[in-house]
Specification:
390 residues, alpha/beta, Rossmann fold, seven-stranded parallel β-sheet, 14 strands, binds nicotinamide-adenine-dinucleotide
Length: 390
C-alpha cells in the first residue's frame, strides 16, 4: 500500500512511518516542522534531541533499510498538498498534521485562532484534494477522545445516535462536549469529515485516541531513530510529564483532585492499532469511528504508579496536587466502547506500569538536558487567564 502521512515529523508520525515502511508499505510524508518551533516558543524542547527530517530518513535507510520520502510543506497550502497527492496517488492518507496541544490553544487569541485555522484548513484541504484526485482514497484522521469530554453516558463508536425530542425521533451526530479550543477544533473536524462523507462518499476512519505515552516501538532500536518526547506543561501529556518530573526530582503534579479519568494507550500499541486500521480499511464510502484506548486510569492513579515505579528504581518521589489550571470535571463517570479494534485483531502488548519503567530508564541519560527546561514543567497556562509570563 502507498501511504501519505501528513505530520510525519511528529511524536506519532515518525514511528508510524518506520512501522509502515518496515512492513513493506511505500511511505511518503509531509511536515512543516511546526511542532519543533512551537515547543521552542514556550521555552521547551523534545527530551531527546531530534535529527533533521532529512537525516532521519537517511538513518532509517541505514539502520532499518527502509525508504521514506519526505517533503517539507504546509498542509494549509492547498496547491502544494494537492500537487504531492497528485504526484504520488496514495491509497491511504494519515492526517496527523494539526496543532495538538490543548494548553497551547488556550494561551491567548492568537493561539486559539492559529489552532482553528491550522486544524480546520488542513482537513478541508485534504477533503478537496482527494475529491479531485480519487474519492476512494482512505483518510485515516486522528481525532481525540477529548472530543467527547466526560459525559455521564457511554461513549459509543458510532457517528450518529437516535434522539427523541417532544415525541419526535431523529438521528443526530453523537453528542460531544470538548474542553479546550484544541479539542473543539477536533470536534469541528469530525463534523466536517462526516458531512463530506455524506456529500461525496469519502471513505474515512475517524480515530478518537486517548493520550499516548511511551518512548519505544519495535522499530526504535537506535537513539538516532527516536521520536520526539514532550514533557512541558504546554506540550507534555500526563504520563510523559510525570516521568520527567520524577527524573528531575520534582514532585508529581496531578491537577486538582486528580480524579480526571481517561483512556490511555502506549506508543507501541497506538502503532499496532493504526497499522490495523490502515490494512483493514472500512467499506468504500463508509465513515468509521474508532475509539483507540487501552487502559483507563485517573491522573492520580497514574501519579501513584509513577511514584511506585520510580521508587523501585531508587528515586525519592512526592505527589503534590496543584491548582487545576483547566476547566474540567475532577470526578466523573467514564465508560468507552471499544469493539472495532479488537474485531480487527488488536491485542495491546503494553501495560502502563511496565512502560513507565522504560520511559524513566530512557530519560535518565538525558537528565542534564532536561534540567535546562525545569521551569516549564509546572502549569502556567490557565484556561481563564491564558499563559502568564509568556
Ligand atoms: N500524542 C497524543 O497523545 C495524541 C492523542 C490523541 C490525538 N492525538 C492527535 O494525533 C496527531 C499527532 O499527534 P502527535 O502527538 O504526533 O503531535 P505532533 O505535534 O508531535 O505531530 C504533529 C505533526 O504535524 C505537523 N504539522 C502541524 N501542522 C502542520 C501543517 N499545517 N502542515 C504540515 N505539518 C503540520 C507538526 O509539525 C508535527 O510534526 C495530532 O493530530 C494530535 O491531535 C495525539
Amino acid at each position: 500500500m502507498k501511504v501519505l502521512i501528513l505530520g510525519i515529523d511528529g511524536y506519532l508520525g515518525w514511528p508510524l512511518a518506520l512501522r509502515l515502511a518496515k512492513r513493506g508499505h511505500e511511505v511518503i510524508g509531509i511536515d512543516n516542522l511546526y511542532t519543533r518551533n512551537a515547543v521552542k516558543e514556550v521555552g521547551s524542547d523534545s527530551a531527546f534531541p531530534l535529527p533533521d527530517p532529512e537525516e532521519r530518513v537517511s538513518f532509517a535507510k541505514k539502520i532499518l533499510d527502509v525508504d521514506i520520502t519526505f517533503y517539507k510543506a504546509d498542509v494549509k497550502d492547498f496547491y502544494k498538498l494537492h500537487e504531492i497527492i497528485q504526484r504520488h496517488k496514495p491509497d491511504a492518507i494519515v492526517h496527523f498534521a494539526e496543532q495538538r496541544s490543548a494548553p497551547y490553544s488556550m494561551i491567548d487569541v492568537d493561539h486559539a485562532n492559529y489552532t482553528f485555522i491550522n486544524n480546520l484548513t488542513s482537513t478541508i484541504n485534504l477533503i478537496y484534494s482527494i475529491i479531485k484526485v480519487d474519492p476512494n482514497v482512505h483518510i485515516l484522521k486522528m481525532g481525540t477522545m477529548g472530543e467527547y469530554g466526560t459525559p455521564n453516558y457511554d461513549i459509543l463508536e458510532r457517528p450518529f445516535v437516535e434522539v427523541e425530542i417532544n415525541g419526535k425521533k431523529d438521528k443526530i451526530p453523537f453528542p460531544k462536549w470538548a474542553s479546550s479550543w484544541y479539542h473543539w477544533s477536533k470536534v469541528y473536524d469530525s463534523y466536517n469529515l462526516l458531512w463530506a462523507n455524506q456529500v461525496w462518499g469519502i471513505t474515512i476512519t475517524d480515530i478518537m485516541q486517548g493520550p499516548v505515552y511511551g518512548t519505544r516501538t519495535e522499530e526504535i532500536i537506535d537513539d538516532k531513530l527516536r521520536t520526539r518526547f514532550d514533557f512541558d506543561e504546554v506540550w507534555g501529556t500526563v504520563v510523559n510529564r510525570y516521568c520527567v518530573e520524577a527524573v528531575l526530582g520534582l514532585p508529581l503534579t496531578p491537577y486538582g483532585k486528580g480524579g480526571q479519568t481517561r483512556g490511555f494507550i502506549s506508543l507501541e500499541d497506538s502503532m499496532q492499532a493504526l497499522t490495523l486500521l490502515l490494512e483493514n480499511p472500512p467499506k468504500q464510502g463508509e465513515y468509521r469511528v474508532v475509539n483507540q484506548i487501552h487502559e483507563v486510569y485517573s491522573v492520580m492513579q497514574i501519579a501513584q504508579m509513577v511514584k511506585e515505579v520510580g521508587e523501585s528504581l531508587g528515586m525519592k518521589i512526592n505527589i503534590q496536587n496543584v491548582k487545576n489550571p483547566r476547566i474540567e470535571k475532577e470526578e466523573h463517570y467514564y465508560n468507552v466502547e471499544t469493539n472495532i479494534l479488537p474485531s480487527l485483531g488488536f491485542r495491546p502488548k503494553k501495560k502502563m506500569k511496565d512502560e513507565i519503567k522504560f520511559i524513566i530508564e530512557d530519560l535518565i541519560p538525558f537528565k542534564s538536558r532536561l534540567e535546562n527546561f525545569k521551569r516549564v514543567v509546572m502549569p502556567k497556562t490557565d484556561w481563564r487567564k491564558g499563559r502568564e509570563n509568556k
